[in-house]
Design brief:
The complex is a heterodimer of chains A (313) and B (315).
Chain A lengths: L11 H10 L3 H7 L11 E6 L2 E5 L7 E4 L5 E4 L7 H10 L6 E5 L5 H4 L2 H6 L3 E5 H7 L18 E3 L2 E6 L2 E6 L11 E4 L4 E3 L20 H14 L5 E3 L9 H23 L4 H6 L17 H17 L1
Parallel strand pairs in A: 4-5, 5-6, 6-7, 11-12
Antiparallel strand pairs in A: 1-2, 2-3, 3-4, 8-9, 9-10, 10-11
Helix pairs in contact in A: 1-10, 7-8, 8-10
Chain B lengths: L6 H10 L15 H8 L10 E2 L4 E4 L8 E6 L2 E5 L7 H12 L4 E5 L5 H4 L2 H6 L3 E5 H8 L15 E4 L1 E6 L2 E7 L9 E5 L4 E5 L24 H14 L4 E4 L4 E2 L1 H22 L6 H10 L9 H14 L2
Parallel strand pairs in B: 4-5, 5-6, 6-7, 11-12
Antiparallel strand pairs in B: 1-2, 2-3, 3-4, 8-9, 9-10, 10-11, 12-13
The chains are: A alpha/beta (313), B alpha/beta (315).
């Protein structure tokens, strides 16, 4: 908590909320200061002739790679501490040519911290407008500082398509969910979709409540993914992949709605965040979901923060 | 920059347009014959480079090819439009000799016509990112432009709405609003210089090329109503001091207003002419040529616009 001014926390309730949200720790994790990178190994899974997923750890955003005659395209960039391992994993597939593009699914450091080392070598970093805008905001208690070298240099506001390595790669900006700068990346010909941190794999998803995200947005975009994709689409989640389908998204969607409604009801009853956490509203969903970086208490805190902010409006 | 069109070609084109054919035959004119001759390589005066500001250079249109804008940054160059394929070497030469030796990073097509996007194919081979609207790519793939050069290549990066590029501390905004001159028109704005490139959504200081005879490419989704809306949006959405149209000379916001008014006059006149519901397409053709608008016949505006204008504005 040392990089966040404790003096601004005026009340115990606020302190509890902040702790539940994991500020400080979350910011550190995003910048990669809390992970032992030396111990991490990258696991590569082949999804199609020219498409791969690279996974390092639950707290590191899953990278997707497209290869071919034009070179390499990546979705998200892990951490600079993992750059050499990521490049080795890329080359181990036989992929040749320069890394021409990195597409960021959203701004968080576990997906963008590695951008700078690619940009230095001439890679074009692409994201939705909000990613750039938020990364350039001054650091505050609620937002970590993002190094300028990691900021995307090509942005779009609605949809964008790249034609590369014989693929048609659609970048789709959905309504705000995990953040207000999310991108879904769809490889049309291969029928593979990277959904970033929208609801997909079994876990308690981070919700970027200070980056324009919301629990209702997460619920809506989970459904949207199932409209954009089809039952045969291989869906790559931002964490804990490598691949999920409609079954997992539907189950996550049910959890989001159930837990949201439970927490909303308790807020209306006047319960504090401490009391709500103690009531364990996620208890029947905990099994199989504790492998991610977000604990049930922190997840409840995120939903609580989002719902109480909106009730005040 | 008056284009010389040999008399023989004009006669052939007139024949292909079916002058003297029965007036009742209301269908698209044969565009192929007129435009195919125009799109063949033609001699052109040497390219020059005109400095607009510390970081912006214009490579003026030279004959029928388009104006090109070059943004210079420490990290490389961004080009708006690239003329014809066969002019690539001369375009590169004038940029290298007069403007900058930095690498070209991005090319932006203002629309799909070959006089603006023809050299895409060469820049793509160089590894340059070529950007257009989605229709800008689709129209090239669908060969919507009659007589367009064989082997034209579309952009490899497309978008809806807006894209922004940040290179060497400079920002470039690229916007696709919707149908106008074609369905693929984008405007490119340089906020630091307050300069905007509008492609063929306006013609400034070059009336022979089409200033008073707007080429409404209905065959590729153009629309006179959309075009007027596009110019109103440009005037409302951007703060700019200078504007570069796809052909002709540099201008100011007043030139956008003036061009919008030309389009308004065309729409008003054609609507009034068609208002009683008895006029055929052939009647409109005669009216456009002999009436107050004086559209050349044969001419580009007539070839690409007549059929669509008639269908669009008849009551």
């Amino acid at each position: 908590m040392h990089n966040f001014r404790i003096g601004v926390v005026k009340t115990l309730a606020a302190a509890v909320a902040m702790a539940a949200l994991g500020f400080g720790t979350a910011a550190h994790a995003q910048q990669g200061q809390a992970m032992d990178f030396a111990k991490l190994q990258i696991k590569t899974t082949k999804l199609a002739d020219n498409l791969y997923v690279m996974e390092a750890a639950p707290g590191v955003g899953n990278v997707m790679m497209l290869t071919g005659a034009d070179g390499v395209l990546l979705i998200d960039s892990m951490f600079p501490q993992l750059h050499d391992k990521l490049m080795a994993a890329i080359r181990a597939t036989g992929a040749t040519g320069p890394v021409k593009y990195v597409i960021n699914t959203h701004l968080h450091g576990d997906h963008t911290a590695g951008n700078g080392l690619f940009a230095k070598d001439g890679t074009v970093i692409i994201a939705q407008d909000s990613v750039r805008r938020r990364m350039l905001l001054p650091k505050s208690e609620l937002t970590p500082a993002y190094p300028p070298e990691n900021v995307p240099t090509v942005t779009y506001n609605d949809r964008m398509t790249l034609h590369f390595d014989g693929e048609d790669i659609e970048l789709i900006h959905p309504p705000a969910a995990h953040t207000d700068g999310d991108t879904i990346v769809y490889f049309k010909k291969a029928n593979v979709m990277h959904v970033g941190d929208l609801p997909a794999s079994f876990r308690f998803n981070n919700i970027g409540v200070n980056d324009g995200g919301s629990v209702d947005g997460m619920i809506a975009d989970g459904k949207l993914v199932m409209k954009l994709a089809n039952s045969q689409t291989k869906i790559v989640p931002g964490h804990l992949g490598p691949v999920v389908g409609f079954k997992e998204i539907t189950i996550q969607d049910t959890m989001f709605q159930t837990v949201r409604d439970r927490i909303a009801k308790m807020i209306k009853q006047g319960k504090t965040l401490e009391q709500i956490v103690a009531a364990e509203p996620t208890k029947d969903f905990n099994e199989g979901r504790l492998g991610g970086n977000i604990t049930p208490a922190r997840w409840i805190g995120l939903i609580y923060t989002d719902l109480t902010r909106r009730m005040k409006k | 920059m008056k284009r010389q069109r040999p008399a023989l070609l004009a006669i052939l084109a007139a024949a292909a347009l079916g002058l003297g054919a029965p007036a009742a035959r209301a269908q698209p004119l044969d565009q192929m014959s007129v435009l195919a001759t125009d799109l063949k390589p033609q001699p052109y005066p040497p390219f020059t480079a005109v400095k607009l500001s510390d970081d912006l250079w214009q490579i003026p249109g030279s004959g029928s090819n388009s104006n090109v804008m070059v943004l210079v940054t420490d990290e490389g160059l961004i080009l708006v439009d690239v003329k014809y394929d066969y002019q690539y070497d001369d375009l590169i030469k004038v940029i290298r000799e007069k403007v900058s030796t930095k690498p070209i990073k991005f090319v932006i097509d203002t629309h799909y016509h070959a006089d603006h996007s023809g050299a895409n194919v060469r820049f793509l081979k160089d590894g340059v990112q070529v950007i257009s609207s989605i229709p800008g790519r689709e129209d090239i793939l669908a060969k919507k432009q009659p007589g367009a050069p064989v082997g034209m290549a579309p952009a490899n990066v497309t978008f809806t709405g807006e894209m922004r590029l940040y290179l060497g501390g400079k920002e470039v905004r690229i916007r696709h609003y919707g149908p106008g001159h074609t369905n693929s028109d984008v405007v490119v704005y340089f906020p630091q210089d307050r300069v905007i490139c509008v492609g063929d959504l306006a013609h400034i200081g070059d009336l022979e090329r089409g200033g008073q005879y707007p080429l409404i490419d209905y065959i590729a989704g153009g629309s006179i109503g959309g075009w007027i809306e596009r110019l109103n949006s440009i005037l409302a959405d951007y703060k700019f001091d200078r504007v570069m149209s796809g052909h002709g000379t540099l201008g100011t916001p007043a030139d956008i207003v003036a061009y919008r008014d030309i389009l308004e006059r065309v729409r008003t006149d054609v609507r009034a002419f068609l208002a009683d519901g008895t006029k055929t397409q052939a009647d409109l053709r005669t009216h456009l040529n002999k009436g107050p608008l004086h559209w050349p016949d044969p001419g580009f505006a007539m070839v690409r616009g007549l059929h669509g204008l008639y269908a669009d504005l008849k009551p």
